[in-house]
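Consortium newsletter contribution from the modelling node. Members have asked for a concrete example of what our holo predictions look like. Here is one, prepared for the magnesium ion complex that several groups have been discussing at recent meetings.
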Amino acid sequence: MSDDNKIRIEKATKIFNVYKREGSSQKKWERKSKQIKKSLLYAVKDVDLTVRRGEVILIIGPSGSGKSTLIRCINRLENLSSGSIWIDDECITDEKADIRKVREEVGMVFQSFNLFPHLDALHNISLAPVVVKGMLKEEAFEKAKSLLKRVGLSDKIDTYPDQLSGGQQQRVAIARALAMDPHIMLFDEPTSALDPEMIKEVLDVMLALANEGMTMLVVSHEMGFARAAAQRVIFMDEGEIVEQGTCEKIFDRCEEERTRKFLEHIL
Ligand code: ADP
Ligand code: MG
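And here is the predicted structure:
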């Protein structure tokens, strides 16, 4: 792969089996006798995408358009049905790929924080480096402290998640992902569960990360963040990339009707 490219996605397709009961009878005995019908749902359809080293990409699109599924395939939380994903020179969708290594390289932050409730901030952040990477505890604690400082939470070292605000929990979650020294960070609607006054503190941490040169794929509808940090915006619908380009191109003069309709709802 060219030196400039960090991720290459080729013809990525993810199909889910969905099961539906045929008919819609209200009567219980009738419902029971109905056939359960299996159908295929193309969550991601034939997606090609190349991400440059250090590039920040914002992915937008309606609910159910395949945004989460696409980025989850990049750290193998989901497996593609067909197609391939390359990180540097390694095909991570190959059966022989080392999933643990992929997860070390590709950090992920979710809408719902997913912190360990029984661990304080320091231990939430240092757990994986110790357990997965075999880092010495003292070293992992030092690293966790410096990461907490980086996300502006030096005073929350021994605080448990339920004593932190949503914005603070999300910043701990980002620090936890960074503790593995990833080269790529995936964010799946990182501010959607936050009260409005907490959104900025999380976006500021992400912006700093972007400015440091992290390769980032961010599913979000935060236009301010996009304009400040994203080199490219991708609009997805029905599992496909419909249109992509700079913030100006997508937000101010998009070409596709589907993009325009969607933006009308969120701008
Ligand atoms: P988005 O993040 O854009 O809202 P998703 O990637 O979550 O979209 O979902 C894309 C489509 O795939 C949706 O129709 C969703 O219902 C379906 N889907 C996602 N995950 C699963 C799953 N584990 N099983 C079945 N269908 C799923
Ligand atoms: Mg989603």
